[in-house]
Amino acid sequence: MSLDAFMHILGWSAVINIAVLGLSTVALIFLNGPVASLQAKLFGLTPEQCRLEAYRYLATYKALFLVFNLVPYLALRLVISA
């Protein structure tokens, strides 16, 4: 696989990950109460614990996206354009 093809794969993967992160964030903002109460009943947690876990999920997802997708894509863009 060439570097150009790998860069395109990382680019489209970044677009998909940004969409998933954005939708998750919007869902967390607007559906926080109903989802937290449902998950609290399902998993035996308090709604506050569910909210904290949701924010932890978003923070972890964002960190992994940056480290494994966006940074390699930007590095390849720099290498290929140089």
From TrEMBL:
Residues 1-79 form the DUF6868 domain. This is DUF6868 domain-containing protein. It comes from the Bacteria. InterPro entries: DUF6868 (IPR049220). The chain crosses the membrane at residues 6-31, 61-80. Keywords: Membrane, Transmembrane, Transmembrane helix.
